[in-house]
């Protein structure tokens, strides 16, 4: 039995108590459950049974902050919604926690370099007409 456990350990298979996920990962999971909520660091810390100071300190150790993590989650989800749905931009803004669509658009542009409405106008996203045309052209030339 000891030989099997040793072999598993050498192969990178852990036996024993599972390591807990980092705080940033746990916080991401919590926030992602309801991105439209008006999250604050004290509320998130309370939900994770931590003080706000401990939350901020541990996140800093992991190289992030509460506001950066929340903004990243919201913008990533917004990009996904804009690409995968036909929801109006103002609805997407609300779904990711922005009450003001113009504020959302400013933050989105700062993050991705294009406006939310430009995402909708692009036809070169994965799985769209441009990709299909390019693939068809590539196959006809080969």
TrEMBL record:
GO terms for cellular component: cytosol. GO terms for molecular function: DNA-binding transcription factor activity; transcription cis-regulatory region binding. Residues 25-122 form the HTH araC/xylS-type domain. Pfam families: HTH_18 (PF12833). SUPFAM superfamilies: Homeodomain-like. It comes from the Bacteria. Keywords: DNA-binding, Transcription, Transcription regulation. This is Transcriptional regulator, AraC family. It comes from Rubellimicrobium mesophilum DSM 19309. The lineage of its organism: Bacteria, Pseudomonadati, Pseudomonadota, Alphaproteobacteria, Rhodobacterales.
